[in-house]
Specification:
322 residues; alpha/beta; 7-stranded parallel β-sheet; 3-stranded mixed β-sheet; 36% helix; binds NADP nicotinamide-adenine-dinucleotide phosphate; NADP; NAD(P)-bd_dom_sf; oxidoreductase activity
Length: 322
């Protein structure tokens, strides 16, 4: 039988983001299962008091802090796996991080995914996924290099993180109980809570694989639930006690919105329009088969329970614009 390995020395790049924070906290809670857990402090980024406090919490929890730039080979030395929960404007740096990591001896990467299956429908050609697709292509290219046949990666695919599905970016105004949706009431998307997405991510780090049978190149699909927009608004109405006034728009009208945003150089608006197209065309509906049964100890939380929880949480209420 081919030699099985797990990922034991872990570096998180992008620890201060919404997903990165939850990932670091989860690693801390399972620290004893790893040889080394660390987070990357990108010294080119602005320092804030919030970040200083967050990093102190991580250090107190037993994570190492590694400081430097994405081109510093030394900073990446001694790790077998780098996870990159980077935000929209940083996703483009991943090929550089991968090349530096490879030089330092890293042989496994979790690129910034935690989203839709990029091979589904027309996702691969959508603007929002451009840098995610380029990153996959870069990994696949480096994986063909003669000196790195052992280069592996893990793609965590889930559809949409449930907490994000009901924010302004996706057309929902919780303060005024109105919504502008590109698509139809029957349109579906797959939703998984961030906590469950990260719980699955940690399990995959512990999931043994072998390089011999290509098991080091792992696309996982984890499914929570796939409600329609109508079901989502029914939940919101039940939880908030308010009726939502929802306007459904022709999906393809977002093409023009995307082009307009591009013409004026508004990247965030361009990404928003791209997301509307992806969503309206069913791109965030996770195709089967799912891999949940590999980790039967995780029972994804229901959409109702996730929404109820976040509407009760003061910080999350702000995030929801409520
Ligand atoms: N499927 C979904 O519904 C969904 C929802 C949310 C996120 N995600 C995915 O999860 C991943 C992480 O997202 P997130 O929302 O957690 O990200 P985020 O909070 O926006 O940012 C994550 C990290 O990126 C860094 N960063 C941001 N802009 C940067 C820049 N210009 N240069 C260098 N670093 C920068 C941040 O560092 P600073 O603290 O220094 O700014 C932070 O550490 C992404 O792949 C995203 O697509 C998916």
């Amino acid at each position: 039988m081919a030699l099985q390995k797990t990922l034991d020395a872990i570096l998180v790049v992008g620890p201060s983001g919404m997903v990165g924070k939850v990932l670091c906290q989860a690693l801390i809670s399972r620290k004893s299962e790893f040889k080394r857990i660390a987070f990357f402090n990108d010294t080119s980024r602005p320092e804030t008091e919030e970040k200083r406090q967050l990093f102190a919490t991580f250090r107190n929890g037993g994570m190492e802090q590694v400081s430097g730039l994405y081109t510093d080979t030394e900073a990446f030395t001694g790790f077998d796996c780098v996870l990159m929960p980077l935000g929209n404007h940083a996703i483009k740096f991943q090929p550089t991080i991968i090349d530096t990591g490879i030089k330092a001896g890293v042989r496994h990467f979790y690129p910034s995914e935690w989203g839709a299956d990029l091979t589904a429908g027309s996702n691969r050609t959508q603007r929002y996924y451009r840098d995610k697709v380029l990153t996959r292509e870069h990994l696949e290219k480096r994986g063909r290099d003669e000196d790195t046949p052992d280069l592996g990666w893990t793609y965590i695919q889930l559809g949409r993180l449930a907490e994000w599905s009901i924010i302004k970016h996706f057309g929902i105004d919780n303060a005024n109980h109105t919504a502008d949706i590109y698509g139809t009431p029957e349109g579906r998307q797959s939703l998984l809570s961030t906590a469950d997405a990260i719980a699955y991510t940690i399990e995959t780090l512990r999931h043994p694989f072998s390089v011999a049978d290509n098991g080091h190149r792992r696309p996982y699909r984890f499914h929570g639930a796939s409600p329609t927009w109508k079901e989502i608004f029914d939940e919101l109405e039940a939880i908030t006690g308010h009726r939502y006034s929802v306007t459904y728009h022709d999906v393809e009208s977002a093409v023009e919105k995307e082009a307009r945003a591009k013409a004026v150089g508004d990247v965030d608006l361009e990404l928003e329009a791209s997301h509307q197209l992806i969503q309206g065309r069913g791109g965030t509906l996770l195709p089967e088969p799912f891999n949940n049964n590999l980790f039967p100890n995780i029972h994804p939380e229901s959409v109702h329970s996730i929404f109820e929880k976040i509407f009760r949480d003061e910080n999350m209420r702000k995030f929801l614009g409520y």
